[in-house]
User: Fold this.
Amino acid sequence: MTSPLYVRLTTEQAGRLDRAAAAVPAHKKDLIGGLVDRYVDPSTPAGVDALRELATAKRVTVELGGDAPVVGHAEFRPAAPAEVLDAAGAAELLAVDEAALRELAEAGGLPGRQIGGQWRFSRQALLDWLAGT
Assistant:
């Protein structure tokens, strides 16, 4: 009987495993199974100590600016969208061609202002205009 096991390896470790499987040749699962059979012995205190040493030697701790280091956690905070958009940004927001956006703005159909010959648009004003409010 077998059980699935999913692990994350470093790129270098995965490359070594791929090269080993190609060199033998063998399935990677068989190589991993053989390594577990040969080196993993949780039934003795010495075996548990050896495993503990492996587990603590590879742990990565990252400081994320909180009160304590966090192990195995990542966080993503996207930047706030710009409040003022140029013509390209406004066209992207409205999913239209920039030339069509400029034409509509010049005709007074969009809420925007020309500053120094360049169009500027308020993100919120465009969204309100689009919603019909």
DSSP finds six helices and three strands in the chain.
